[in-house]
Amino acid sequence: MKAAALSALATLWLCAAPTPVDAGVPSQREWHFEVLLDDKPIGVHRFQLSTAGETRELRSEASFRVKILGLTVYDYSHQSSERWKNDCLQGIDASTDDNGDDFFVRGHGGGDGLLIESQTGIASLPGCVMTFAYWNPVMLQQQRLLNTQTGEYIRVDVEQLGEQTLHIQGLAVPALHYRVRAGERDIQLWYSSDRDWLGLSSTTRGGRQLHYRRLSPVENDEGASDG
């Protein structure tokens, strides 16, 4: 697979966190995903979210490496620190090394909107801005989402595809299935019945399958955990 194909898809994997919690109870949660390309592990993506009242602090780290015959043909790393108030992004500091190409996105809230700086310049985004925050079901109601690698504010279309059963660490988990279209990109998402993000799948431009496999504990309807 060409590096450019994986790079184009990687730019949409960059934000995540958990289902909203009781605003009055401080909490911290972690989400770990193994990333696979055609069922072959290529890396990990980890998320840590702290919630206190209306404020959320999210840290995410991703690292992917694709090898062919022992040689690295694609190397990717991403770090992001985000500040949220309820469902609206208030600040972001993200950096990405995309196979040797460096990117950054920095932003802060000011009044009714967000000021974003990236390689392409400075942009003022109005209203309540969200990233591709697959964790938050409110994302599925948005018409535009912020790409935290490039700083692009992308028009999206979301479709609910019905129900499926996912097998996560040996546990059968009922899941709600969604499709997110963002330009030429088509992303499949799965959520538990209580709207917890369970997985991601997409097809690269080279026709290969990219999957996020949930590693951290998931609860089923009876409260059983796979961890």
Description:
With 227 residues, this protein is mainly beta. The chain has a single domain (3-214), classed as outer membrane lipoprotein receptor (LolB), chain A, CATH 2.50.20. 4% of the residues lie in helices and 59% in strands. The chain contains one helix and 15 strands, in the order H-E-E-E-E-E-E-E-E-E-E-E-E-E-E-E. The strands form two sheets. It has a 13-stranded antiparallel beta sheet, covered by helices on one side. Strands 9-10 form a two-stranded antiparallel sheet. 32% of the residues are buried.
Please tally the β strands and state the result. 15
Regarding quaternary structure, how should these chains be classified?
Answer: single chain
CATH architecture: Clam
Helix content: under 10%
Strand content: over 45%
What's the domain count? 1
| Strand order, largest beta sheet | 8-7-6-5-4-3-2-1-15-14-13-12-11
Q: Segments where pLDDT lies below 50 for 5+ residues?
A: 11-23, 220-227
Shape: globular
Structural class determined from secondary elements: mainly beta
Cα end-to-end separation:
34 Å
Q: How many DSSP helices?
A: 1
Topology order in helix (H) and strand (E) letters: HEEEEEEEEEEEEEEE
Provide the CATH top-level class: Mainly Beta
CATH topology tier name: outer membrane lipoprotein receptor (LolB), chain A
Describe the structure using short key phrases.
single chain, 227 residues, mainly beta, outer membrane lipoprotein receptor (LolB), chain A, two-stranded antiparallel ribbon, 15 strands, 4% helix
